[in-house]
Amino acid sequence: MELAFRNARIVTPEDAFIGSLLVRDGKITAIDRGVSEVGEDLEGDILMPGVIDLHTDSLEKHYFPRANIDWSPTSAAVTHDGCGLSVGVTTVFNSLSVGSFNAAPSRKQDRLQKLIDGIMEARENGMLKADHRIHWRCETTSDLLPELLQDLHGHPLTSMFSMMDHTPGQRQYRNVERHMENWRANGMSQEDCDARLANHRERQARNADRNRKYVAELATSLGQPLASHDDEDVEHIDVAADLGATVAEFPVTLEAAERARERGMIVVMGGPNLIRGGSYSGNVRAADLAEAGLLDAFASDYVPRSLIECAFALTDDPFAWPLHKAVAVVTSAPARAAALDDRGEIALDKRADLIRVRQKGGLPILQGAWVEGRRSA
């Protein structure tokens, strides 16, 4: 199968220029500068690599459209796939939580299994157009984590692990009083709040260290990338890096991001942090990391649309990044973080995961998407 484009503003790792591109059998076989008479006329629109989303909770939102209401997991996977493609996501890491920082799991194991089965059923029946993978979000304070991972880690879509610790009073939830206020607002007495916090901290002390080591060893044995989540300080980064983590996902302080860079880790921030102007939890701004030269990549977290907007926001003031550098934060840098060396760039012999983008009213709007050279959106 052959596909050709002309009159496109092609974004390569080094530059962006008007030119033409040829795809054969799902791979990029030719890239040329200047005017051509062969291929589909893209009318000067941007042609860039497909977006790679390392961490998204979007699938679960389609499965649980309202509290206490679940949807068909296969249907949820199909809807999730289409929504991602509509905003340029051609490779998606579905972030699924294993274990809970609460004493009782917030997501039952059977529901998690249904989600996984839904992805596989949709995939095996040709319902999904993007490349779907699983990113296991491992809550290291959970009593059940090793038991749960024993049943899950060998899944064929397993592609990434991350180590998490959502104990109130540190990392993402440094403001413990805010948690206390929320608990009290939900009817808990101060005595109950104190007991709940003590319970969280007791399970953290009992489980977190050994579970981090367990997850790290599992990722290493499978040859899968390992991320550390919501690191707060130098010690958090050093512990993770010493265990083999190569990705610092959503560091919450400038200090943690600086140490991650020193340890050779890829710094990934949440897209909504940049687009909204900051973290909803009061943590370090993605914009500050970008200006400090400490930002490598974005993940969508909870808004897939944020990724393509991040790339184009970085080309505007106050950042004024060149287009090829800005595009890299949602394409080649995530590919590197995920150890996917076959995609993320417009370069010879790379997968033809491509998107056509036109800016309208200050926003990047998708005009087309191709996955391995096949039109998908």
Automatic annotation (TrEMBL):
Keywords: Hydrolase
The keyword Hydrolase appears for this protein: yes
Signal sequence segment: none
UniProt-listed Enzyme Commission number(s): 3.6.1.63
Protein's UniProt keywords contain Hydrolase: yes
Gene Ontology MF terms: hydrolase activity
Protein's name in the database: Alpha-D-ribose 1-methylphosphonate 5-triphosphate diphosphatase
Organism: Phenylobacterium koreense
Upper lineage: Bacteria, Pseudomonadati, Pseudomonadota, Alphaproteobacteria, Caulobacterales
